[in-house]
Amino acid sequence: MSNHDQEITPEILEWIKQQHVFFVSTAPLSAQGHVNCSPEGLDTFRVLNPKEVAYLDITGSSAETIAHVRENGRILFMFCAFTGGAKIVRLHGRGTVVLPGSERWGELIDRFPPQPGTRSIIVAKIARVGNSCGFGVPTYNYVQERKALTRWAESKGSAGLIQYKAENNSRSIDGLPSLDSGH
What we know:
Layout: E1 2-5, H1 10-17, E2 22-26, E3 36-40, E4 45-49, E5 52-58, H2 64-72, E6 74-80, E7 88-98, H3 103-108, E8 118-132, H4 148-168
Antiparallel strand pairs: 1-8, 2-3, 2-6, 4-5, 5-8, 6-7, 7-8
């Protein structure tokens, strides 16, 4: 019912491209810290090569992924088939945070459609690709992307987003540093 590889195969790549949602999980090193799992969408995931992926991180209510990746690098991406045959793919890796203005930013940002509120790109070197059945995952029909996050970011404007990130994204819920106030 399950198998694993050390890289993303062409078959898995094609399957990932068809998915509209994925989940990102990270955790701090502290046993008392909170594990984080974030649903993502909006065409923000890219496979850079069979052993490296990236996703466009958009301003949100917290910055747990950034804080955890900066602290320890551990990251997991999970994709579930909500239509078609049952399948779950997990990409285990070590992540880095790429911020606007960095050399890697210029190399990566054009791979994604423009998204208001973009705050970073999370890049991960993949060490394990798990592929399992997903027989217990229900089927759903994709209707459309939600526009709420885009509208919210546009309504804030550049100055408002900087202020919001300074107030809400500078530390994780466990107090780990995430974004500097300049980002």
